[in-house]
Write a structure and sequence with these properties.
alpha/beta, FAD/NAD(P)-binding domain, Polyamine Oxidase, Chain A, domain 2, 3 domains, seven-stranded mixed beta sheet, 14 helices
Length: about 475
């Protein structure tokens, strides 16, 4: 832990910027404050608390787990994430074994596999080349195989030439035909932007989760399967943190991070709870270091004058990938043969029919009904009547369900902390990250600075890595 000469960090919890002259209630003293109570922040706090570090977690939402598990369908909360969780990280699996009942973790049974609908067939992910070639015309199949061999052994694959965009990366890696007919449509649908507009790093996801160069899928290591929801796991982590002496504050949004002339700094958090005209309460928490998992734009905005104007401008250049989905109540006991099915050249990216939604929405779903999550790309225009009619047509053509079988539907849209990797935004993102590295007692993790969605396992691993970096300072 830092010595006496280290600057202190002061956290003001539940503050309103519209209430000048308010009183501040002095709160407890802690060593680390974690901003963000998603799985990354909770696992980071648990990792620190397990090492004897006093921690406080501050979460914007009103429950642990963040926005991942606080969406609602007819006033019933549910988790918008894949279930069960799958991890190949032995340390995470052992940690979860200490928090969850033994029957919820297994390493002997293969986990549920997502599928991709391709040429009328359901193919397990990640795809192999021979999976993709089946059903294609012979001429196109030969062309794809030849291009794959050329791209693999051609000197251009290891050329020192730096690709200018994601399209060039994919052409060098997989060859022109394979990129054009198979991989490019998936990537472009995910990011919602032309490949020539995306930075080279954008080519790494979701391609690597969809396509594998392995010929034998069984050669991959057997992961652990956690048969629970992200919301349940977040609750367990929160209780474990409290049992280790940590504290959690919910419904508080980071509003200001100020470094004072004296050794120390202040982080102002605004109370999001509506108290019918009453001014929000304030609590002053004192800590030595901060670990942030909140989006970069929110963190930069909170830093205010302590970061240059160019960094503020850079934060507004980031175009974030939204989370969008239609949740549909369908008059069918089941719509899918697999827990998650990805689609290409459809108005939706993937369909999920998680059984957990039935248990987390008691009284909402009858045994003869199911809840279907329809994830879409693009902007909020996906909630337009034309977009919805296109989705209904796609569901019917894929024989998922007919429009008459959809009893109710709700459109979900909220921002994420995932920047879209456009070529012009990469320098802005690097400028922000370089600036934040100047603060010796501030460590970022989770979605901050990442380009892709995280699985629950990846979120926890990123929180652990950030906690280790913070402890090493």
């Amino acid at each position: 832990m830092p010595g006496q000469g280290k600057p202190l960090l002061t956290i003001l919890d539940r503050v309103s910027r519209s209430s000048p002259g308010f009183s501040i209630q002095e709160g407890p003293v802690t060593e680390v404050v974690v901003l963000g109570g998603g799985l990354a922040g909770l696992y980071a706090a648990f990792h620190l608390a397990s090492d004897g570090v006093k921690v406080i977690v501050v979460e914007r939402e009103f429950a642990p787990g963040g926005s991942l598990r606080t969406q609602q369908f007819h006033d019933h909360p549910y988790s918008l994430a894949e279930s069960p969780l799958v991890t190949g990280d032995q340390q995470i699996a052992q940690t979860l074994q200490s928090l969850l009942p033994p029957n919820l973790i297994s390493a002997d049974a293969p986990p549920p596999v997502p599928y991709l609908r391709w040429n009328g067939n359901d193919l397990p992910l990640p795809l192999r080349l021979r999976d993709l070639l089946g059903g294609l015309p012979p001429a196109l199949r030969s062309n794809l195989v030849l291009s794959q061999l050329v791209s693999r052994f051609h000197p251009g694959r290891t050329s020192s030439h730096s690709p200018a965009n994601a399209a060039e990366v994919l052409r060098q890696r997989y060859g022109e035909p394979l990129c054009e007919f198979i991989i490019a449509p998936e990537l472009q649908a995910y990011w919602g932007a032309p490949l020539t507009d995306l930075a080279p790093a954008a080519a790494d996801f979701p391609v690597r989760s969809l396509f594998s160069e392995r010929s034998d899928r069984t050669a991959e290591p057997c992961p652990w399967t956690i048969h629970t929801t992200p919301g349940h796991l977040a609750d367990r982590l929160a209780r474990a943190i409290q049992s280790l002496g940590g504290r959690l504050f919910y419904g508080a949004e980071v509003e200001q991070v100020g470094i004072e002339p004296l050794p120390g700094c202040q982080i102002v958090i605004r109370d999001r709870l509506d108290r019918r005209g009453e001014p929000p309460s304030r609590i002053r928490l004192t800590a030595r270091r901060v670990l942030s998992t909140i989006p970069l734009r929110a963190l930069v905005r909170a830093l205010g004058s302590h970061v240059p104007a160019q960094v503020h401008a850079a934060s507004y250049q980031l175009d974030h990938l939204p989370v969008q989905a239609h949740i549909c109540l369908v008059q069918r006991s089941s719509c899918l043969n697999h827990p998650t099915v990805h689609f290409r050249q459809r108005p939706f990216l993937r369909l999920t029919e998680p059984e957990r939604l039935r248990s987390e929405t008691p009284g909402t779903v009858a045994p003869s009904q199911t809840l279907l999550l329809v994830e879409v790309a693009g902007r909020a225009t996906q909630n337009s009547r034309e977009a919805w009619q296109s989705i209904l047509g796609g569901l019917e053509e894929e024989e998922i369900c007919s429009p008459d079988e959809i009893l109710d539907a709700q459109f979900l849209h909220w921002p994420s902390g995932v920047p879209i990797l456009r070529r012009e935004t990469v320098p802005a993102l690097q400028r922000i990250l370089t600036c934040l590295e100047r603060f010796p007692n501030l460590q970022t993790a989770g979605g901050s600075g990442r380009f892709t969605w995280m699985t629950p396992s990846e979120s926890m691993a990123s929180g652990r890595a950030a906690a280790q970096l913070l402890a090493a300072r």
